[in-house]
Amino acid sequence: MRVVIAEDDPLLREGLALLLRAESLDVAATAGTAEEALAAIEAHRPDVAILDVRMPPTHTDEGIRAAVEARRRRPGLAVLVLSAYVEQSFATQLLTGGVGGLGYLLKERVGRVEEFLDALHRVAGGGTAIDPEVVAQLFTRTRQDTRLERLSPREDEVLALMAEGLGNSAIAARLFVTDGAVHKHIRSIFAKLDMSPADQVDRRVAAVLHYLEDARRRTP
Questions:
Q1: Among residues 73, 95, 130, which one ends one of the domains?
Q2: Which of 53, 55, 70, 139 has its CA 20 to 30 A from that of 86?
Q3: Where does the HTH luxR-type domain lie (predicted)?
């Protein structure tokens, strides 16, 4: 897997590079600005780009805009965005875009190496990885939705893990239950959210987007 890293903090940038190289991943280039990141992505054509949300010169949303531009230039490029804290508007925008190969993690997650690498590989494989803290905050905001109030505490947990991008087996392992139990909970979630098997949509995606979209509407 070829990776480009864009992070303005030199210690974190080099730390990420060392970590990935230790895992036998090809770190093609590192960058300290969004412009450098885009140039590196053009030159090295990585499988995945890791970008900080806030980069010079304004330290606002340069990383996000660079991620959007990189995906425009190279459709299908996997992008994992890192942020120092939860930025709900971007997290919901990420999933409601309806495309894969995208991730949003808090920087503190990098220190949990196994979780970070799992998220990186998931994103590189075309999946989605959303930080559990982001999901937790968004989920709390959406508890005002009447249909979501129908869910049991266990169904809440299952839906939150679905939003992180985990499959049934990974959810089962996280909750210490069987695959069959997870499947049963998901069927119940679909039923309580009024999602019929006849609907011409992916009900798993629709269930997640239902409360994330509600969170986006409620975000000032």
A1: 130
A2: 70
A3: 144-215
Same domain, 125 and 140: no
One-letter amino acid at 5 equals I
Residue recorded with tokens 């996000």:
64
Between vectors from CA 77 to CA 174 and to CA 97, what angle results, nearest 5°?
A: 65
Instruction: Say how many C-beta atoms besides its own lie within 10 A of residue 57's C-beta.
Output: 9
Structure tokens belonging to residue 99? 């495309």
Domain span holding position 173: 136-218
User: What digits encode the pLDDT tens for the residues 13-67?
Assistant: 999 999 999 999 999 999 999 999 999 999 999 999 999 988 888 887 888 888 8
DSSP-assigned states of every residue in 91-141: HHHHHHT--SSEEEEEGGGGGSHHHHHHHHHHHHTT-EEE-HHHHHHHHHH
Q: Which CATH number do you get for residue 163? A: 3.40.50.2300
